[in-house]
Design a protein that fits this description.
Layout: E1 2-6, H1 21-32, E2 39-41, E3 44-51, E4 54-61, H2 68-79, E5 86-92, E6 100-103, H3 112-121, E7 127-132, H4 142-146, H5 155-172, H6 177-184
């Protein structure tokens, strides 16, 4: 089974914020696949989908960003999901708004959700799909920025990034992640 994890913070307060773009991609796929996240276990909401390419799970950890690994680690153990069958979708301050970057491993790069995953999974080697949210304007603190919403000017770029990310995930269900990287990096 392939596990598609969108990182974010639960609750209406955080809906639509820069930090929740991983949740947005999972929600987009859940709508597209008619697979609402109705199951709850290990502090996460998920659905299991039977697709022509095989089984897939969409997951939104509800532990808040900084504790995402608690949910993911427990769920992977319970369902016996291999690390190579995981992709994590999250925001990246170091990429322009809407740009995608896919990697198979790496450090947390200051992202607390990824730090938690590395801690709980015991490895930095897992597939990632990062979506650019750009850097905060001068004088704005990073925590305030990542919890802010995208501007109306940014909205079309963000919508396109969510759509492209979903397309990359669907491609990954049938192809090796290295091929997904080749096709979607930088888009």
């Amino acid at each position: 089974m392939k596990l598609i994890i969108g990182l974010g913070n639960p609750g209406k307060t955080y809906a639509g914020t820069r930090h929740n773009i991983g949740f947005e991609v999972v929600d987009f796929l859940a709508d597209k696949w008619n697979a609402p996240l109705t199951q709850s276990k290990f502090k996460g909401m998920y659905s299991i989908i039977h697709r022509p390419e095989g089984k897939a799970m969409l997951l939104k950890p509800l532990t808040y960003m900084n504790l995402s690994g608690e949910c993911v680690g427990a769920l992977m153990d319970y369902y016996d999901i291999a690390i190579e069958d995981v992709v994590v979708i999250y925001d990246d301050l170091d990429l322009p708004t809407g740009q995608l970057r896919l990697r198979q491993k790496g450090s947390a790069g200051g992202h607390n959700g990824i730090k938690s995953l590395i801690q709980h999974l015991g490895t930095q080697q897992f597939n990632r799909l990062r979506i650019g949210i750009d850097r905060p304007p001068a004088g704005m603190k990073v925590p305030d920025y990542v919890l802010s919403r995208f501007s109306k000017v940014e909205a079309p770029e963000v919508d396109e990034a969510v759509r492209k990310s979903a397309e990359a995930i669907e491609f990954w269900l049938a192809k090796p992640f290295i091929e997904v990287m080749t096709k979607f990096n930088g888009t």
